[in-house]
Write a structure and sequence with these properties.
459 residues, alpha/beta, Rossmann fold, 2 domains, nine-stranded mixed sheet, 16% strand
Amino acid sequence: MTLHLEDLRVRDLGECRYDSPLAEMLSTKQTSPHYVAEGDRVLLEDTVSMLAEHSLPSVQAPSFEAAGPRRKIYFDPATVTAGIVTCGGLCPGLNNVIRGLVKELAVHYRVKRILGFRNGLQGLTAENRYDTVDLTLEGVRDIHHSGGTILGSSRGGQDADEMVDSLVLRGVDILFVIGGDGGMRAATYLSDAIRERGLDMAVIGVPKTIDNDLPFTDQSFGFQSAFARATDFISAVAVEAAASPNGVGIVKLMGRHSGFIATYAALASSAADIVLIPEVPFVLEGEDGLLAHIERHVRTKGRVVIVLAEGAGQELLDHGLPEHNGRGTDASGNVKLGDIGELLKQSITAHLTTVGLAPTIRYIDPSYAIRSVAANAYDGVYCLRLAHAAVHAAMAGRTAAAVARWRRRFVHVPLSLMTSRRNQVDPDGDLWMSVLETTCQPAEFGPVREREKVRVGFC
C-alpha cells in the first residue's frame, strides 16, 4: 500500500479563531506552554532507504500531522458539549483514557458538560440516547485503579444517521470514540454522515486493541499490561506441566489475526517451548509436523509448554472439529473463531497416547482475566498522554482523525487509515526470529523448503 502526503492529511472543521485557554492556565514568568506548530509533521518512514524510494524533498515526503496543543482553537470551550463512548471488547486502560479526557477537558479547557454514552454505540441509538452519565472530575477521580470501563461497552453495527440524530439532540459538539477496528470504522461512518449534513461536529478516535493489530501506531494502549499479565499464566502452566508425567501445558491467548500478545508473553516468560500464531501456518501430522515435535519434546524433557494465539491454526478446524464449520460472524462482523485449543488437546492426547506417552494436559484460556485487569504504570502514562492528544486535536477542530504514537511522537491519523490494513507479526522479522531463538522451535511445522529444513535442539 503506497501512501502519499495527501493520504495522510487530516480534515479540519475550519479556521481556528479562539485563543487556547492553556496560555492563561499554564504560562508563568519562566515558561510558556509548548504549542505545536501547524507545519510540524512526523515522517511516515524514518529510514534513508525509504525516503530515497520516494525521491521527494522531506517537506513532500509522506508524513503525519504532529499532535499537541495549538495556540488557536476552533471551538469556544465555554459552549462545548463533549461526548465519550467506549466500544468493543475490554482492554486495560479504558478507564484511564476516560479519566484523562475528562480532566483535560474540564481543567485545562474548562468544558462544563461532558456526557458518557453507556454500553458502547448502543448508547447512541434512539432507544438509549438519554441513558447517559454526566462525567465529572469527582466521578472519574479514582477510576484508573479499576479495569473495564465505567461506561460499559458493546459490539454491533448501529445506523450512522440514527447515531448522528442522537448527537444532535444531545447537543454534542465533540465525540471521542475509544475502540478497536470496529470502533474506528463506526467513527468513520459517523464522520461521513456528519459531513454530509454539514454539521459543525468533531469526531476523534482513540485506537484500542488488545491484540496490537491496528496500523500506524507504535503500540496499542493496554497491550503491555495484557502481555505482562499473560506471563503469569504461562509460568503457572509451566509449573503444572513440570510436575506431571508427560506434562503438556497449553495457554491460549488473545490474537485473532495477530500474534503479538503470544510472542511478547512467551519472550517475557521464557517458559514457552512452542509458540503458535496466526501469521505462521502449521500442520499437525508428519515427520516435521507439530505433533511429532511435541512428542520429541516430551521424550527429551518430559514436558512441553505451548503458547497459542486464538487465531492460530484456524484453517485446521474445519477438518479437525466439524462442529466448528460455518461459524458465522459476531455483532461487529468479525468471523467467529473456532477453539483451536480444544483441537490441539484432542490431537495431542490421541498422538501421545498412541506412542505410549499418555499425557497430562493442562489447558487454560485466561483471556477474560487478562482483558479485565487495570492498566500497569506504563499503560497508565500512555493512556493519559493519548487522552491529552485527543482533546487537543478536537478543540483545534480536527475531525475524522485518530490520535496515535508514531516514531515516539503523538500524531493525527486519518480514521480511514486506521482500518486500511492490519498490523501483524512479520514471519521474516526480528520479533519472530527472537521467538525462534528463544524456543528453538523450527521456523515451520510441516513440509518446508530444503534450505529451511534444519533440525534444532531443545532449549
